[in-house]
Amino acid sequence: MPRSADHVYINMRTDFKFQMARAKKVIFDGANEVHIHGLGAAINRAINIALQVQSHYNDALDIDVRTSTIQVVDDFEPLQNDLEPRSQARYVSTIHIRLFRKRV
After folding, report:
1. Domains, the chain, with CATH or none
2. In whole angstroms, what is the distance from residue 15 CA to residue 23 CA?
3. Quick one: which H or E segment has residue 71?
4. CA 36 to CA 20: how far, in whole Å?
5. pLDDT in tens, 12-70
6. pTM score of the predicted model
7. Does residue 97 carry a pLDDT above 80?
8. Residue-wise burial string across 24-37, b where 16 or more C-beta atoms lie within 10 A, e elsewhere
9. 61 closest CA partner among 7, 103, 6
C-alpha cells in the first residue's frame, strides 16, 4: 500500500494510544478520509482503532472495509556457521479500512 499522510499502518509494537491519535489527527487536519491498514495479529487493533475514531467523530464518518491475503517471506539466519540460510513463504491476512466523511 502507498505511504502517504492519510495512510496509517497499525502494528503491535507501537503504543495503541499513539496509533489512534495518529488516525484521528488525519481527519482533524482536514483530510476527507483516512486509510487504516492491519496485518496478521494487528487486524483486531486496526478494527478497534477505526471504530473508536468513527465514534470520536460522532458517527460523521462512513467505513469501507476490504480484506485480503498476502504472501510474506521469512528469512532464517543459522546460528551455526556450517548451516545454510533459508527462507519460508507463508500467507497472512490483511485488512484495509477507509474512514471517510459522509456526504450530506
Report:
1. 7-101 (3.30.110.20)
2. 13
3. strand 61-76
4. 10
5. 999 999 999 999 999 989 899 999 999 999 999 999 999 999 999 887 899 999 999 99
6. 0.85
7. yes
8. bebbeeebeebbbb
9. 103
